[in-house]
């Protein structure tokens, strides 16, 4: 019965909610961390795919917010990993012209909204999703940046680090 109720809860969860990890199964932090090297480890693979880049950066934003605010995960990853996630997020925000003090939920909502609009081939909707005060360059310029991101070495390092910490069977306090 417990398993059925848990499955029902997963089925009704809104994957587009600002705090939800898209595409994960089970624990969303674990899913995002295991997928991180493939999503935002090397963003050059996403040139010309602004929707995919937006989702990857939403994932980075999610991890940078969720890990230090989780009673469980903040004790399961190294402090340097949490710092690396923050540095990677800050680097990505700077590259996209996102305000440093923007709420993570607002940034994720804008990036995910743009990705959904691009998937529907709605350029105006994508620009609109990125035209909030948090996206200081405006929608059109932010989309251009998403289509051709510069190298983000801090984000790449964060992807590897969070993946290693989640994959490691060792207790972080014994490392």
TrEMBL record:
What protein am I looking at? Answer: Uncharacterized protein
């Amino acid at each position: 019965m417990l398993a059925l109720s848990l499955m029902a809860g997963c089925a009704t969860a809104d994957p587009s909610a600002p705090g939800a990890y898209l595409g994960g199964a089970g624990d969303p932090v674990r899913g995002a961390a295991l997928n991180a090297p493939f999503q935002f480890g090397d963003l050059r693979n996403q040139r010309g795919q602004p929707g995919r880049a937006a989702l990857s950066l939403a994932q980075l934003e999610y991890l940078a917010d969720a890990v230090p605010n989780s009673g469980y995960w903040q004790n399961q990853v190294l402090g340097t990993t949490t710092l690396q996630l923050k540095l990677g997020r800050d680097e990505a925000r700077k590259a996209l012209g996102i305000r440093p003090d923007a709420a993570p939920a607002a940034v994720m909502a804008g990036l995910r909204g743009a990705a959904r609009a691009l998937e529907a081939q709605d350029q105006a909707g994508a620009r609109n999703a990125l035209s909030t005060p948090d996206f200081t360059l405006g929608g059109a310029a932010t989309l251009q940046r998403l289509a051709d991101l510069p190298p983000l070495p801090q984000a790449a390092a964060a992807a590897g680090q969070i993946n290693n910490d989640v994959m490691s069977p060792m207790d972080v306090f014994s490392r």
